[in-house]
Design goal:
With 216 residues, the protein is mainly beta. Helix content is 15%, strand content 43%. The chain has two domains: 97 residues, no CATH class; 112 residues, Elongation Factor Tu (Ef-tu), domain 3 (Beta Barrel), CATH 2.40.30. It contains three helices and 14 strands. The longest helix has 15 residues.
C-alpha cells in the first residue's frame, strides 16, 4: 500500500510505502520526497537527537515542529499527528478521521500573531487545525479546525479574521461556551494567535455568560 502525504500548504510532499498499520498507527518507508531546506534541517536535527538517545523537552520541541506542518494524506479524510521521520527513510504517524470536524461548533474572530511576535512565518489556509486553550478553562486543550469566512488564506499578522471552528473533545466543553469567551491557539507550545467567540452554533456547548462568571 502506498500513500502520498503533504502539508497543508502543499509545499512539502512525500510518497510512503506502508510497511505496517495497527489501528491508527502507520509505519512505512519514504520512497520519494520534495522537502525544502528548512524541513530537511529539522529532520536532520531530529535524526541526530534520536541517534544520541536524547529524550524529553528537546526532542518534543522537534516533534512539535514536524506536527506544525499540518500533514495530510492525499485522497483520504484523515489528519496526521505524532508525526516522526527517521533518517529520511523511515516514517511513522498516527491518523484521525476528519469526520470529527464535520460540524461548526462556533463562529469566532481571530487575530494572528506576526512572525516578529513569535507567530507563523507562512500563511495558513482553511482547514488549519491548531490546538486551542480557552481562557476560562486553562486546564483543557482541544484541537479546532478553522474554516475562514470570505477568504481562504490568512497571513501572519492578520487581524479581524472571521472563521467557523469545529473542535474535538466536544464532551469536555458541553454547556461551557458562549459569546465573548476568549481563547489562544497554538502549534505545540508556540502561540500563533488568539480569538473571541462571536456566536456558539452547537447547542450542546452553549452556556450563559453569567453562569461562567459566577463560577469564578
Amino acid at each position: 500500500m502506498k500513500l502520498i502525504i503533504q502539508d497543508i500548504a502543499k509545499q512539502q510532499k512525500a510518497e510512503i510505502k506502508v510497511q505496517n498499520r495497527t489501528d491508527n498507527l502507520i509505519q512505512g518507508i519514504i520512497l520519494s520526497h520534495s522537502f525544502d531546506t528548512e524541513l530537511l534541517s529539522i529532520l536532520t536535527e531530529f535524526e541526530e537527537l534520536v541517534n544520541n538517545f536524547v529524550v524529553g523537552e528537546v526532542l518534543d520541541g522537534i516533534t512539535e515542529k514536524l506536527d506544525a506542518y499540518n500533514w495530510r494524506i492525499e485522497h483520504k479524510d484523515w489528519i496526521i499527528h505524532d508525526f516522526q521521520i527517521f533518517d529520511l527513510k523511515h516514517i511513522s504517524f498516527r491518523i484521525k478521521d476528519t469526520t470529527v470536524f464535520s460540524t461548526t461548533d462556533f463562529i469566532a474572530e481571530l487575530r494572528f500573531f506576526h512572525s516578529d511576535e513569535g507567530g507563523r512565518k507562512s500563511a495558513v489556509t482553511s482547514g488549519y487545525r491548531p490546538h486551542i486553550k480557552f481562557n476560562e478553562y486553562p486546564d483543557h486543550i482541544t484541537t479546532g479546525q478553522q474554516t475562514y469566512i470570505n477568504q481562504n488564506t490568512v497571513q501572519p499578522g492578520e487581524k479581524e479574521v472571521m472563521t467557523k471552528i469545529s473542535i474535538v473533545n466536544k464532551e469536555v466543553f458541553k454547556g461551557k461556551l458562549c459569546k465573548n469567551v476568549c481563547f489562544t491557539f497554538y502549534e505545540g507550545k508556540h502561540r500563533i494567535g488568539f480569538g473571541k467567540i462571536i456566536e456558539v452554533i452547537n447547542d450542546d456547548l452553549k452556556v450563559n455568560w453569567n453562569t461562567i462568571k459566577n463560577k469564578q
